[in-house]
Amino acid sequence: MSNWLDEMFAPQKPVIAMLHLTALPGDPGFDSRTGLTAVIERAKEELDALQGGGVDGIMISNEFSLPYLTETEPITAITMARIIGQLLPDIQVPFGVNVLWDGRASIDLAVATGAKFVREIFTGVYASDFGLWNTNIGEVARHRARIGGSDVKLFFNIVPESATYLSGRDLASIAQTTVFATLPDALCVSGLTAGAPTDSQSLALVKAAAGTVPVFVNTGVRAHNVAEQLSVADGAIVGTYFKKDGVFENRVEKSRVEELMSEARAFRSTLH
């Protein structure tokens, strides 16, 4: 197992919680009447609930910037930097960022805010709900080095939501060549959309092909299956389940966080 994962997170097989920001300036759903004040207040409330419920890490994303751009407008990362700046005094666990769906902007935001990791689609060409979607990991990796972000860990989502890989290659081959040729720090395996279950067979295939690169289950983790998922994966990223009634649009509910984290800790106690 890669040493960086053990150095960054205290427990084995960490659970990273998504902190979904509501729509931001420039997004169709942004509420200009309540403005950024409401966005920041909700973010602070949900950060408190997630950390109070015992999560091991936080990933801050512009999840409600629907429909997403594959090259974001500058206002998005700029606004996220302001919000994170106001959250920083209260963040007690390692945190990462995700500017959907823009790897370069995610790295810029991480360097500006001190985030430890980013998650994005860094490789592949896709037919997606957002149009033809291309990437350039060589350029992005060099950009990370140029701006002083070499310590920012890159989580590669190799099964992107709302998109299909154009090459038609099998998942194990994609994982093998991604690890060999593009130097990811971790791989993420997802279902079709946020909150959708991740296929256990797909997760196992990627884990077998990834070698020493950590593999995270990226969607669909719930209290009843977190032990099963963590028996294969090296960690989990959880968003939708932590919300009231498990509904994507709702606010985080501390009791649901506590429920899942209790199951995760019980499973981790069996590893020693």
UniProtKB/TrEMBL annotation:
<dbReference type="InterPro" id="IPR005137">
    <property type="entry name" value="BtpA"/>
</dbReference>
<dbReference type="Pfam" id="PF03437">
    <property type="entry name" value="BtpA"/>
</dbReference>
<dbReference type="InterPro" id="IPR011060">
    <property type="entry name" value="RibuloseP-bd_barrel"/>
</dbReference>
<protein>
    <submittedName>
        <fullName>BtpA/SgcQ family protein</fullName>
    </submittedName>
</protein>
<comment type="similarity">
    <text>Belongs to the BtpA family.</text>
</comment>
